[in-house]
Amino acid sequence: MEQLKTLLVANRGEIAARIIKTAKKLSIRTIAIYTEADAASSHVIEADKSVLLPGGNAKGYLDGDEIIEIARAHRVDAVIPGYGFLSENSAFAKSVSDAGMVWVGPAPASIDSFGIKHTARELADKAGVPIVPGSKGLIENEDDAVKQAEKLGYPVMLKATAGGGGMGLSTCQNTEEVREAFETVKSRGETLFKNAGMFMERFYPDSHHIEVQVFGNGKGNAIHFGERECSIQRRHQKVIEECPSPFVEKHPGLREKLCAAAVRLTESIKYASAGTIEYLVDDNTADFFFLEMNTRLQVEHGITELCYNVDLVQLMLEQADAQLLGKGGIDIGKLTSLQPDQPKGAAIEARVYAENPARDYAPSPGTLQTVKWKKLDGSRLDTWVRTGSIVSSHYDPLLAKLMFHGSTREKAIEGMHELLTTSQICGPPTNLDFLASIIIEEKFKAGSTMTKFLKDFNYAPSAIDIISGGAYTTIQDYPGRPNMGRGFPHAGPMDPLAFQIANLLVGNSTGLEGLEITLEGPELLFLGPAVVALCGAPMDLKLDGKSSPMWTRTEIIAGQRLKIGKTTGGGCRSYLAIHGGLPGVAEWFGSKATSPGVGVGGYQGRALASGDLLSMIKDLPEHVSSSTSPVTLPDRLVPTYPSHWSLAALPGPYDHGYLTDSDIAMIYKTKWQISHNAARGGIRLIGPKPQWARKDGGEGGAHPSNVAEYGYPVGTLNWTGDDPCIFPVDCPDFGGFVSSTTIVRGEWWRLGQVKAGDTLEYRQVTLDQGIEMRKRVDYFVDQIAKVCAGEGRFESIEALDYDNLPFSATASEPGQGVIHQIGAKDKQPLTTYRQGGDDYILVEYGYGEFDLNHRCRVTALTKALKESKSAITFSSGLVNTVGCCNSLLIYYDGLRISQHSFVSHLTSLEKSLGDLSKARMPSRVFKLPITFDTSKEQEAIKRYMETQRPYASYLPDNMEFVAKNNGLEKTDLKKILLGNSLMAISVGFFAALPLCLPVDPRRRIYCPKMNPSRVFTPEGQVSWGGACMALYNVESPGGYQLTGLTIPGVDILGCKQGYSLSRPWLFEDFDQLTFHEVPEKEYEEQLAIFHSGRYEYTIENTVFDMEEHNCLLQETREEVKGIRKKQAEAQTKMAEIEAELMAKWDKEKAEGKVPIDKVEALLNDPSISKISSPLNANVWKLTASEGDVLEANQVVTILEAMKLEIAVRTEEDLAGGEVEKLLVRPNDVVKAGDPILLVRKKAH
Predict the structure, then answer these.
(1) pLDDT of residue 1228
(2) What is the distance between the alpha carbons of residues 443 and 404, in angstroms, rounded to a whole number?
(3) By the 8 A CB rule, do 702 and 1135 touch?
(4) Closest CA to 453 of 238, 156, 181
(5) Nearest CA to 1015 among 700, 735, 677?
(6) pLDDT-based confidence at residue 829 (cuts at 50, 70, 90)
C-alpha cells in the first residue's frame, strides 16, 4: 500500500477478524472498535489498537459520529465497514469522506441507488437486466396491493423497499393474505428501516437464490468472480452457500448470462469496490431475474475466494489506496487482468450459529466452554470465538463460517461433513448438527437446493429440551474433581450411591454424567429416544402425565415429557441417569461436574434453566432400549432416607486443645437441627455453642475458633465462630476455622440427602469401622453392577446395612484427632499429624503461628511426595494436596493406602527434608495496580448495610477500621499495601484466591472478618482478614475487609493472555505481590483490557532467600513485640466497640418482631388466615405489603434455603383477601410452619 497505512474496522465478530487478517498481510495498521460485550472478541485482540466504544452494547457499533471521532483521533486513512451495522449507510459513508478519509466501499450515491429496492429494479431494468415481474414503483395502499396481486397472479411477495437481510418480506397466497400482510410489512419497514414504502413481486416457489460477485473500480469498469448458490435459507437468512452453483453447473451458458448482466449493471453506475448482484432463478426454466444489489462485502465471500484464488478484502483495500492517491480507482488494465475464467473446484460454506433448534432456532447467548475446530487440508475458518468467549444477546449469534474447498463438489461435501461432525462447541446450543444433517441429505447431494429446501427438511435433534429447570438441577459426574484443588471444589454428586445406581440401571458406567435434582425437579421434553432412571430421594415422577416408578430403567420415545416434581418423603436429592450421558457437555479438568459457586463445569457452570438444550447420543443399543427386559431395583435394596440421621464420624483434625472435653462430648450427645442454609457448599447446624479450650485463636484470629489457614477435609464439621457447619463436596478447600469432627467416606451418600428441618446426631466410629462402612457401600454397588450387566440376580444381593458393625467407641472414649507427633528439635519444628476422616491427613508445623519457614517446609514435603519412588505415590492412591502457611492437607484413598503406613511414609519423608532455614525458594514478584476507596467498593458496602447489617465497627469504611484496629492511620495502611511484598502462602479457598502474608513481620496487621460475611464481593478485591491479605479473583461472597481493587488472577477457561486451559490460575505459592497506586479511571481501563484478554502482567522471576528472611526475623524481634503490643491495645478497644454495636443490633432485631401474643390474638379472629413457610428458610424478599389485596397464586414472599429461591404463593381460597400483618422482615429466619403474614379473608 502506498498511501493506506492505518485502517479502522467499523465492525465486530468474524468479519472484523477476517479483515484484520488481510490488513496485517499488507502491513496496514488496524484500529478495532468494540463494546463491553465484545471485549474478548478475537478482533479486539488481533488489532494493533482496540478502542472501547462509549455508546453501550446496543448502540455502540451504530454510533457513526463516535466512530469517526475515534478514526480522527488515531489518524486513520480509511474506514472499512464489513457487512451489517453501518455498511450500507450512505450518510455514514459520506461523513467518512467528509472527514478526509476513504470509505472502503462504494460511493454514497451507489449505496442510495440500490438501498431502495424499487429504485434498484428500475436501474436493473434500464441496464437490460431481467427483473422479477412486479409492481411499477411503490404500492400506495391496501386496495392497490390487492389490485397488483391479481394482475401478477398468485403467489406474490410484498417487500419493504428499504429492507434487507430477509427483513420486511411476506409471501401471500391469496387476497386475504395480501390484506393481512400489508400493515405488517408497512410497520416493519417503518420500524426497522424508517421507510414504510413497499412494492410487490411475483413469487416463484420453485426457485434458486443465486448471486454474482462483482468488483468495480469506480470509473465505469467492472469484473466478476462467478456465482454462488445461496438457496438454503431459513426465514430468508442464508444457512449454507456454495461456489459454484450446482444448478448453474447443470445449465451450460447460464453462468455467462448471469455474470454478463451483473457486470453490465455494475458498470452502468460506475460502481466502486466489491458488491453482489442477487438473482432469483426459476428451477423449471432457468430464467433469471434481478432481486437486489448488496453494496458491500457479503458474508459468504470466502467461498468465492477459495474457488477463484482471490482476496476480495485486499482488492477493496487496493481500490481505497488508489482513491487515496487520487487515481479514482484501480487501473483498468490491472482490473481486467484479474477477470477469471472458470472456478477451480467447489467450495461450501456453513454458517455456525449459537441457536436452539428446539426453540425455533432462537438465539442462544452464553459462555462457550469448549471450542475445538477441526482443521483439514482445504478447510477455512472465519471466526471470532474461542474457548471462553461469551455470546452476547446484543448481536447476531453467528459464531463462525466453516468453509471447505475440494477438487469436486463431492469432495467438498465430504470435507464439510467431516468439519461439522468433528468440530466441537460446548456451551449454549448451536446448529452444528443441523448443518451436518443438511450436508448429507440426498437432495443436497444431488444439488437440488431450492429456496424451499428447508420447508421439506425434517431435522430432529437427539436432545433434551429443558422446559423448566426445577428448583436446582445441575449436571454431575462421579467422582467430580477430587484432585483439582486451588479453590475449585471437589464437586460430583452429593449422594454418590443413588447416582451410581441410576447409571447402572440404564447401562452406563457408574461415573458417567447425569442430573442432580434438589427438592423439586425439572420438566424435560425428549426430542429423541432415551433410556433413563431416577434414583434417590422419593419424588413425584410423571411421564406424559402418568406416574412412573423410580429406581427403574425407563424407555422414553421422542416427544415424551418427563416431569419430576417435589420430594415426597425423606431426603432432598435424586439423580436422573440417561443412557450415554450428555455428550454435548464440556469437560473441565477431566470432569463435567458443575460447581455453580465458582461457575465451572456442567452447563455453562450453572444450574439448568428453561430454554437449555442437552444433547444425547443418537443411537441407543438394542440391549438397552429393549422394553422386554426392564431393570428395577427391588424395594428391599432401595436405600432409606429418614428425617433423623445418625452419621458415623472420626475425631479431628482439631479437637483436643481447641474444644473442651465437654464440648467434644456435646458433639456426640446433641440432636442437631439442620438449618435452612444447607447446600452443596455447606450444611449449617443449629444447636448448642462450644465453651472452647482457648481464649482466642492466636495469630489465626481473635475468636477461639480461629486457627492459621489449613486445608479442609470433605465431610468435616467446621466451626465458623460458634456456629457449626458440615462441609460437603463443594466446600472451600481451605480456611481458618477449627474443624473438630469428620464424617467418614462411607457416609457421604447419606450426608448428601440431609435437608433443612431434619435432625442429625454424630456417632463416633474407629478408623477400621469407617473403612469397613466404605467397603460395604462399594461392594453393594459392585453387586448391583453385576446384575445390571446380566451376571446374577437381585435376589442374591443383601441390602446395605451398617447396623451390625461393632460400634465400640463412645463419646466418653472419644479418641484423638492427633494420630502422631514429632517433637521440635534443632531446625526440625514440631510436626503434628491430624486425621480428617478416613481419607485425609493434615501435617501441621509449629504451634499455629504464621512462619514462612513452615511454608518452605510445606513446599518441600509436597515436592517430596510427588517425587517419591516408594509404594505410596499419586498413581497408587494419593489424590491431592492443599498447602497453607504451616500445614499440608493430603487427600488419599483410604482403601488403597492404610493410615498407619501413610503416616510412616510421611515421617520418613520428614526426616529427609533436613534443615531448610537457608533454603532458596523460586519466586515471582508481581507488580500490580491498586486503587482505593472506589465506587465499586462503596456500592458493595452500601449493599451490605442495606441488606445485611446497618452498622458495625467496620462500617462504613473498612480501610479506616483495619487501620484503627492496628493503631494506625488510614494513610499508614496504604503505605503497608504499597511499600511491601506480600507472600502467597496458599492459593485456593475460592477460585484460586491467593492468601498472602507480608514478608516483613513489622508490616503484619490483624483484623476480624465481617460478621455476617458479605453476599457480594467485587472481582479483583484486595482484602484483609485475620493476619492475611486475600485477592478475590471473581465476584463472590466473602468476609475479609475491603482494602482496594486490583487486577484479578484467574481465567476459568484459560483463554486470556497469561493463562491456558491447563492453567487457568495465575498465582502460585511463594509468589510475591506488590502494588502501585493508580487512579480509579486508569484502573477501570486496565480492568477492561484484562476482560478483553490483552492484559500483560508485570512479573519478575527471583529467588526468596530463607536465610536473609530469618536474619530479618531475628533483627526485628524486639521491634515486632512493641508493634504487637500496640496492635493488641487497639484491637481490645475496637472489640469493645464491636460488642456494643452487635448488642444494639441484636436488640433492634428482636424489638422489630411482632409480639407473639398479638399474632395469637389475630389468629383467633375467624376472618384471619395465615400464610406459612413451607420449610426452614431465610426470608430473602417480601413482595406483598400490608393492605395489599391478594390474587390467586400471587407470590407474597421469596425465601432462600439450601441456596435455592422458593416462592411462597397465595392459595386459591385467599384470593381477594387483604394483607393484615407482615410477621417477618428480610433476613429473618423462619421454620417450616411459621406464619409469614396474616390475611383478612374477603367477606362473602
Answers:
(1) 79
(2) 19
(3) yes
(4) 238
(5) 677
(6) very high
CA distance 227 to 224: 8
How far apart CA 480 and CA 595 sit, in angstroms, is 10
Grid cell of 824 as nine digits: 521440635
pLDDT digits (tens, 9 = 90+) for 1066-1080: 999 999 999 999 999
**Ordered strands of the 1195-1201 beta sheet:** 1204-1209, 1195-1201, 1177-1182, 1229-1230
Q: Could you tell me if 387 and 1055 are in contact, meaning their C-beta atoms sit under 8 angstroms apart? A: yes
DSSP classification of residue 544: T
Element (H, E) at 820: strand 818-822
Which residue is it, cell 477400621? Answer: 768
Say what the pTM is: 0.89
Residue whose grid cell is 460400634: 807
| Cα–Cα dist 1231/645, whole Å | 19
Amino acid at 103: W
DSSP string covering 583-602: TTSPPBTTB---BTTTTBST
921 closest CA partner among 1065, 1074, 1067, 1108: 1108
Alpha-carbon span 628 to 613, nearest angstrom: 30
Q: Which of 493, 490, 1131 is nearest to 753 (CA)?
A: 493
Say how far residue 787 (Cα) sits from the centre of its chain: 39
pLDDT at 934 over 80: yes
- How many C-beta neighbours within 10 Å does residue 946 have? 10
Unique residue bearing C-alpha cell 467499523 = 10
- Secondary structure, 3-state, 670-693: CCEEEEEEEECCEEEEECCCCCCC
Return the minimum-mean-pLDDT range out of 154-163, 522-531, 542-551, 1221-1230.
1221-1230
Going 780 to 786 to 787 to 788, the CA torsion angle's sign is: positive
Positions of E strands within 456-581 = 463-468, 473-476, 514-518, 523-526, 530-536, 539-543, 546-547, 554-556, 561-567, 573-578
Instruction: Count Cα atoms within 13 angstroms, Cβ side, for 319.
Output: 26
Name the β-bridge partners of 646.
Answer: 761
Q: Which has the closest alpha carbon to 936: 1044, 1086, 1091?
A: 1044
d(CA 1231, CA 1219): 21
Report the candidate in 17, 158, 149, 162 with the shortest Cα–Cα distance to residue 90: 162
Max intra-chain CA distance, the chain: 107
Q: Are 521 and 539 in contact (CB under 8 A)?
A: yes
Counts for the chain of helices (H) and strands (E), in that order = 31, 64
Return the closest-CA partner of residue 885 out of 726, 980, 979, 994.
994
117-131, 673-687, 1198-1212: least confidently modelled range: 1198-1212
Tell me if residue 1013 falls in helix, strand or coil.
coil
Q: Tens of pLDDT along 958-997?
A: 999 999 999 999 999 999 999 899 999 999 999 999 999 9
**Beta-strand (E) ranges in 161-271?**
169-172, 198-202, 207-217, 222-234, 237-243
Cβ atoms 211, 228 nearer than 8 A: yes
Looking from the CA of 407 toward its CB, the CA atoms found within 13 Å total 1
> Which residues lie closer than 8 Å to 1108 by C-beta, 6 or more apart?
none
What is the spatial distance between Cα 351 and Cα 666, in angstroms, rounded to a whole number? 65
Taking a C-beta distance cutoff of 8 angstroms, is the pair 518, 1202 a contact? yes
Q: Identify the CA nearest to 738 among candidates 663, 672, 815.
A: 663
Express as a percent the part of the chain with pLDDT over 70: 97
510 DSSP 8-state letter: T
* pLDDT tens string 521-563: 999 999 999 999 999 999 999 999 999 999 999 999 999 999 9
CA 706 to chain centre: 34
Nine-digit cell string for 837: 476422616
pLDDT tens column, 104-117: 999 999 999 998 87
For range 142-166, the mean pLDDT: 86
Alpha-carbon separation of residue 115 from 170, 291, 293 (angstroms):
19, 12, 8
Q: 3-state DSSP call for residue 92? A: helix
